[in-house]
Amino acid sequence: MSAEPSSTRRPVAPGAEEILGLYFPVLDHGFVSLVDYMGTDACIERAARVSYGFGTRKTQQTRGLLRYLRRHLHTTPSEMVELKFHCCMPMFVARQWIRHRTASVNEYSGRYSLMPMLFYMPSPEQLQKQASTNRQGRGGDRLDAAGYAEAVRRWNAIREASRDAYEWMTGNEIARELARIDLPLSTYTQWYWKIDMHNLMHFLRLRVDSHAQWEIQEYGRVMAGMFQRVAPISYEAWIDYDVCGMRLSRMELDALRQLIAAGEDSLTARDGSTLDAAALGALGLSKREAAEFVGKLVDTGVPHFDLDLARAKPASYFEERFAAAVPAVDQKA
Amino acid sequence: MSAEPSSTRRPVAPGAEEILGLYFPVLDHGFVSLVDYMGTDACIERAARVSYGFGTRKTQQTRGLLRYLRRHLHTTPSEMVELKFHCCMPMFVARQWIRHRTASVNEYSGRYSLMPMLFYMPSPEQLQKQASTNRQGRGGDRLDAAGYAEAVRRWNAIREASRDAYEWMTGNEIARELARIDLPLSTYTQWYWKIDMHNLMHFLRLRVDSHAQWEIQEYGRVMAGMFQRVAPISYEAWIDYDVCGMRLSRMELDALRQLIAAGEDSLTARDGSTLDAAALGALGLSKREAAEFVGKLVDTGVPHFDLDLARAKPASYFEERFAAAVPAVDQKA
Amino acid sequence: MSAEPSSTRRPVAPGAEEILGLYFPVLDHGFVSLVDYMGTDACIERAARVSYGFGTRKTQQTRGLLRYLRRHLHTTPSEMVELKFHCCMPMFVARQWIRHRTASVNEYSGRYSLMPMLFYMPSPEQLQKQASTNRQGRGGDRLDAAGYAEAVRRWNAIREASRDAYEWMTGNEIARELARIDLPLSTYTQWYWKIDMHNLMHFLRLRVDSHAQWEIQEYGRVMAGMFQRVAPISYEAWIDYDVCGMRLSRMELDALRQLIAAGEDSLTARDGSTLDAAALGALGLSKREAAEFVGKLVDTGVPHFDLDLARAKPASYFEERFAAAVPAVDQKA
Amino acid sequence: MSAEPSSTRRPVAPGAEEILGLYFPVLDHGFVSLVDYMGTDACIERAARVSYGFGTRKTQQTRGLLRYLRRHLHTTPSEMVELKFHCCMPMFVARQWIRHRTASVNEYSGRYSLMPMLFYMPSPEQLQKQASTNRQGRGGDRLDAAGYAEAVRRWNAIREASRDAYEWMTGNEIARELARIDLPLSTYTQWYWKIDMHNLMHFLRLRVDSHAQWEIQEYGRVMAGMFQRVAPISYEAWIDYDVCGMRLSRMELDALRQLIAAGEDSLTARDGSTLDAAALGALGLSKREAAEFVGKLVDTGVPHFDLDLARAKPASYFEERFAAAVPAVDQKA
Lengths: 333, 333, 333, 333
Description:
Four copies of one chain form a homotetramer. By secondary structure, chain A is an alpha+beta fold. The first copy, chain A, has 13 helices and twelve strands. Chain A starts with 5 loop residues before the first strand and ends in an 8-residue tail after the last helix. β9 (246-248) of chain C pairs antiparallel with β9 of chain D, so a sheet runs across the interface.
């Protein structure tokens, strides 16, 4: 981004200005950079109140309103802030990411341009077995060293063959849109991605969740740190009401009502009340739901997504790496 | 709608077929009619499993999957069902309704066509004072009979003047787009409105809520009854997880953890545990949030939105009433 | 907006900075103000190329690319620019405007707040008769002075009755959501409205078109001038390819092919070729389409939407007028 | 789909019923099936008129209205028809397809399920060199037989290595979300895809265009044939105004005005008028634009997208092929 600061009459988020255009590494070759933003916490309040110009509200009043809006799902004012990212990720991550339809996207085109030969290699820590409970993810149980070595050997063989074929085909002027069809899903792509803060919060809540694929979580965590710098009050409300909040069903609330007495401004445990599996079932909770309910009462702590500025790189760092990874046969003008 | 049934190879929802094209009155001149639909509960399961053709799944298995999807916010399969309504409502209701941007809409055009002179008149029960707690709605406190009579007198005077002006202007061939600018917001308009079931559930949850304006709630309740007939299993899940469910914040969950001990498959009240106003505040709940939290533990019962088929009218009933209410000066071809 | 400029590392549009937060009057009480923006012409190019950081492209190269993208409907890069407006308009205009579903909106709430008693009064020039050709608009034929006076008399009577009723009802603490239901559609409302440039261009093309209601055209023209200041190269392309461009049908192109011979890099009229009504009909053009086709060959000139900065007001100008027009009975905190 | 027809009171499109649930092969392993639809041409007219129930309009009147709407971009009524497809395509095609954000999608999950080992192999006709003019596609110039054989040899080697690795990894219980990361982009995936007719027309116009990648064109052509059977009048209008229509710029129209004289209901070539490269440039057309303009006057004929019912398969045909291609190590319940 511009090394030279300019003058503007637009609202400015000082925390965001500090990181604007810095590239934060993710996985082995990927990155996320906040390249532009519009609006701040104060702009959300102003839109919610449909007020004229900048006021002189105290931060404390803004915080109260923004938390009220978030709690009661008055989400339209949070659409008034916009963030634009430059991101680079393996294609299997890109395919999950693009399912969020409320963003604007411009992706690097493999039909038009030559692809850099960069592929994602999972670390030994991440090469885990299929989870038995979360049936779509990994379960924490790592492969042994020999197994990991074998996986790496196979991946490298595939990638070498893919790269050779890609270079041979593009070297023989085969249409790029065909030369790329046997690149593996681990190949890195990149895009510009713009989204409003309301939809970003939805995206991030799903993507920093432990049920998301670990690789996309890594992107979510960095982007959550960027969101925090654009709109810190909104970020705090998002942590309290979304990330660390839970949805309780009618049956779960009925269970709570049997365990807790609500006073005028107090809550008291009903002495001796207990709900065993049978009682939870009688309330309409399936066995699976009962287990989920119990799990909601386990405190898993509050996540922190602060950015580590020491890890940030200039744009040129990645630009050079990617240029070097493009097959040498030919360069588009 | 077609009096004559046809043959189709599409999935059919028997409950919806019974009411298709019937017009259900809402408020004094309005209506809602389900005029078309696509898909059923079974179609949601099929999309979620990306399976081929119609299977032979048992309803019980479908129910388990659909409730799991709803509970875990896997919402895309519920976009696979679509409903189309013909609706008629006062313009102030239409203005709230149209804020939901995920529907397709075709509204009656006051630029092109003459408007029927039909206006919404609130009943004595509904003419209430501003609520003190819910600062945007009515508070339950009714006006006395004299006050109501005075309100009605004023409304009738305004409407008579509006109607006279509209008839005078359209009678003098003033452009309809201008002749209508002083019609009151209580004037009825109508539209075709199509939406997928996922977005319908979101719309309905907000609109059957007690914080919505009562007049739009009336529409929501009838449409919820129609939704129930298209996809009864999804409807039940929506009641259990959305309408009668609640979102709890990080601080509220922390409070629960102090009041309840979670066992392996059971929950037990912690004897002697109580959280007074100070304790709730110490957990980070503002005074307002603490009151909202206590309120969540009050059982407000399960709403029922079954349609009363005895109230249904044929399309012609409303068609004739509306044709009769159009100024006689001139009729578009 | 902020009187004090700040420092930013974001891309800056100098033309937009000059007008940021200025309020431009529209109609008798309305306004539009550009209150924030994100991105410039250069950002569109950068997104289209998925390039790193700010480059050193010449404006001429940017222009060529942006015009190419516009011409070939590669519209996603133009989503990368965002504009935020504060607007005030009569409700009948707001109802047309809100049909564009791709924007974010926060409207002043008549349920929560008291409405200012400001109503739109058409000028004598605008009080025209229904068009005979464009069946939904006005036709240019003005009412005579007596007719206009009578229309004004009727409008004033309705507005006086509406205002009296509104003040009486809110003075008697009737819920605001009901007190407002007989305000006329000419009552002014206001909102914050945010949209990306791609969707703004679509909105503006429809709304500066002569078939749109004249009152909303007035808003479109001011907003087109604001767009021009954010992204002047995109604006020029929009004028050339959208506003002053036309869509030709298969049949119309077939007609052109009979009238014009295409050389390698030249076009030549085919001597003696003529297509009369019968010939156009034989090509598949209905009588109406043939007339539309002939109309497309009439040069209607290039519109200019430059803003007149001398008309701009500070936010406080409208803030004070609106505060003064709110009934005095009671003010929300 | 259901072998057994049911009774419905919904509008029925007879042409669509004939093909409902039939699977049409595309490429070497892919398919498209229309699995459900809502609405017909008559429903679009009814929504546009906001009329009650089924009328007795003649098809000719419906056609006139629908073509008028299409010509003048009154697109909202065409959102009232909905189509649902079951599609199977290589992932590089899926990645282009998913960029259309206005559809609902449920894709087969490689995190949850085992992927079938089916890969797209381009035919000798399709293995062409990069185009020099259309810089993102193939140019028609085929590889020689030896070149094709070499490409196939390389593709087969990559696929064999990918399949072996996938089977080895899933056989060793490595998380499926990781086992799949080196599958090539030519691997087939599948999804349910639902879209309204307005957005389908936009999608199809771009995807049957010669600038789209040939492989996705193949899907577009089959889906255009399905659209034709749901709404034949709309389809015809789409061909005439979109597929075979063109957008002309301000400068191109200015050129036409120099070559053609518009009479009251006729068009006549201006004898002796010619515009050479210099004259076109003087009108503001760049060299590239001038060439594009000349190209618009070349008649490329009217495409036909009629489905060949003889090629249709039952769902079970593909279901069995895909089940057989899933690695045998383990099957999800």
